[in-house]
Queue: 3 jobs
Job 1
Amino acid sequence: MNIRRFLFILSHNILPAVAAGVILVGCSSVVNSHKQKEDMMADYLEGDNEGALDEIEYKLREPAWYNSSVVGTGDELMWRLEAGSMNFHLGNFEECIEQLRIAEDMINDYDERAEVSARDLGAETGAALTNLNALPYRGYCRDRIALAVYKALAYLGKGDEEAFHAQIRRLRNEQKKVQDDYSKFFEQEKARLEEDKAKNPDEAKKTESLGSIEKLSGSPDNAAFKANMAKVKKVANKGYGNFLNPAAIFLSGLGSIRDGEYDNARIDFRHLSEAMPNNPLFRQYYVTVLKKAEREIPENLADVQPFDFPLDRDCVFVVFANGRTAALEQSAIYFPVMTAWPECAFYDAPFQNLEAEAGGKKYSSMILADMDGILAQEYEERLPGMIARIVLNTLIKDGAYYAGLAVIAAQKDMDPAVQAAALATVAIGGAAYRAAMNTADTRSWEILPKEFQLTQFPMPTDRKVDLKLNLNGGMVVSKELRLPDDCRSAIIFVDAPSVQNVAFHVLPIKSK
């Protein structure tokens, strides 16, 4: 074979195939998703909400062969979730519901694939040749429950109380469904990893000796990895076990209270009291519904006083979404090959708490749900499988690269000049490809709060509520609201990703 013939084959067959593979596996396979969202998140935190929304809508534009739309790729679900919460922040509740409905349909489609489809097999092959971004993003447990919470509140925001109540009645079952679905998902991940190990026994053996948390943490090259694991463990301890999201369970319990179903409310607030036994807010809710259900008060709650105003009518609930949620950033691990790694990044809360003044009294918010803890707990649970998968895929790609060089070098009848050109081309091209594909799967839903806080009080007769968001340095962001005359109760949602960007949404409830 001469050089001209070799270069013709390379340019007309090999390189187009590689390029097509890169295009098909999705945008985040080359540039990690957290990096892609830098401009969007910068706009969001600076208060340029329209700029942030433009970034999202650009990603979700009508797909064409010449553009980088994520529609139809494995990244689409993630961007639909961002679109949902961004539109909620802007008060575009109808669009929020539509984006979350699309996301929900996509999640259901992923979960209903009982058998591995051709699409799944293609994604698995793409992951082996590229990285884990080739696999469709299926959403963390935190994402799936947050979707249901935002959808419920958006229904209330658009004035559809019937849909709001229907959605919050389903929240307890949604929580259980997520737990059941994710058990299956973890089993699928484990089974597919074992299949790949069986197909690549040499790499699998190396993975078992190299790919463990202890082994990686013990390497002096992985000091940053070790430090991050310690931080993740600390934050994960703030989680609630079994993927519980207290914000969802609270809304479920609130729905039961408003329906007068105190036995159902008792179940929800018992779960919350057990998940956070030292949280005075949930202890008070639990005692209140126990008394309403005419149930015995446990001895350890005997000194807890119930609320001295009704929760089922003429009541205001303030939900405070504080800060930006934890995200995944790209870093590196060495085993000793360097490979990209999704590291948990945590951000400081901009505010300490919220104070509300209404009817001549003051009320302070308390923690409702630590969203960082929920994500960190799931990240920690998935960690062994993530490490094994990333190490195995890296070794497979490296093995294929060196095997390709060996095959060319072993061709005894090949013209020396052609052989040298082939080795140089594969070496340079292969190194460039491996560098481009050394991308961590940092996909996650980032337009979410670091934490939810909550306070509640009777509907003031003058319908005026003064809100103050307290910063750690003593400064405040304040807002005076007047609740609509035609609402009996209300949820006030304060969305504060940063000091520069605070949105106040009054979600009126006209019935009771």
Job 2
Amino acid sequence: MTSSFDSDVVVVGAGPAGLAAALTLGRSMRRTLVLDSGAPRNAPAAHMHNVLGHDGLPPAELRRRGRAELAAYPTVAVRDEAVVSIAPGDGFTVTLAGGDDVTTRRVLLASGVVDELPPIPGLAELWGSTVLHCPYCHGFETRGTRLAVLGAAPHAVFIATLLRRYSDDVVLLTNGEQVEDLLDVPVHGGPVARLDAPAIVTFADGTTLERDVVFAGGPASQHAPFAADLGCALLPGGSVEVDEFGRTSVPGVSAAGDMARRATLSGVMAAVTVATAGGLVAAVVIDQELHAEDTGLRSPLPERAQLSAA
């Protein structure tokens, strides 16, 4: 059966989820092709945290080490080439930007998401340096500094109060919107005109507020259209819905990393370790499903559940 396909599994994306999946598949002797468009979500970040054994390591170094480890597994190949389309049929046909078609029995989507930043001049240029998004990723390093949180949504209000454990100087910037007064967190309601390095906030009336770090964020959208093109169920907010085994609503297609969520865990934070774990689980399940197909044995995995958004 396997000889009629170029690969057992095509992994789209070479971030933590994709590389972890490829490592597991390589150790399972599965013919695996990893395709990477070269636009990781955490590229602007100088360091990553909450990654056991690698706390403070640059994200690019983790990806480099992951690729180097894959070289030990002869059934795994990595290509720096973008995917153009994925078409179902007898398995799947993956068309690459260079024009090649690759046939595969399974597809694992790990192409990530793109952050949609507030449209404030200067913010995008400071993203990942002095404009940060996650107190669990960066809060400890900002302790004792002058902080601001940009936003008026309940999540921004919550984060502003949470950051008080790191600093006595936290300001909530509501950018012209109204919020209720916060305990121990002053509010500046003026519209924000721009941000300048290192983290100087200029308001529409010309006044400024000097900060060391601004926490900001927004929604994220799928980095690539393949999940939607294949008909995978999507959750509100755009995440690909998966079950606890990384399976999407489309048979043969799995998803892992920041792009994928279980409906019951849609609020779980995005993190390197979460993405890595998702890639490993999805890969193990793919291998077991393929083994069941090849041997005719009953898989020990539960049947694919009907996903809520399907």
Job 3
Amino acid sequence: MKPAELKKIVQEKYSQIASQPASAEGASCCGPTSCCSSVDYTLFSESYKTLQGYHPDADLGLGCGLPTQFAGIREGNQVLDLGSGAGNDCFVARAIVGETGQVTGLDFTEEMLQRATRNAQKLGFANVCFVRGDIEKMPLPDQSFDVVVSNCVLNLVPDKVKAFAEIMRVLKPGGHFCISDVVVRGTLPASLRQDAELYAGCVSGAMDIDLYMNLIRQQGFEHITLHKQKPVGLPEQTLQKHLSDAERQSFSKHQTGIFSITVSGYKPS
């Protein structure tokens, strides 16, 4: 599939998600009456309910971690959230930066931007804004953010080299990113990846974890830290269908499989 075709599919999919009611417990990818209602994104997501700044109407259950938990955001910081959706991570970040900071959400789905803007208006936040744009070519100035966060979005970006190059560009010297994303470890049969995508979503664009970490290093980031990695479980019947006994054993020991990770890295100062 060409990158433009993939981006169109992602836009259409997330436009549909933006139109469904919010659920603090998470939602299937396109709502209960759609053709893909069997996809369970909650296998990746973690609860935001205990975090200051959490706003249920902004939580669509589409994340795969809590990047703000490890991002080291400080009061007064300029923060950018990539693939900001309905604003969930933006509002949590805003609770940390306070009145003196600024939070910007970037998304390329108009319906998500509209939903996020309505949420910000309801909360009365003057220092949270949402911008339409592509992560591979952000309409944002150089060296303008202290922290960049993102939650289960970069795996959907066709050119991850461009994405991390853009993150490097918009960060201030000494600034850093903290990203939660989906990766794979080891070689998974194509048939298993396809079934996993139907079961859990977000898998088809996932990179091998070693390639992912090397890509970050190649863009020049320093002090790279893997804060967390959590295996994503798949039904035993799915594993039996596609894997040998030895492969299933490797999967169960987490030597091979699908993982959600949270990683950070710093731009040289």
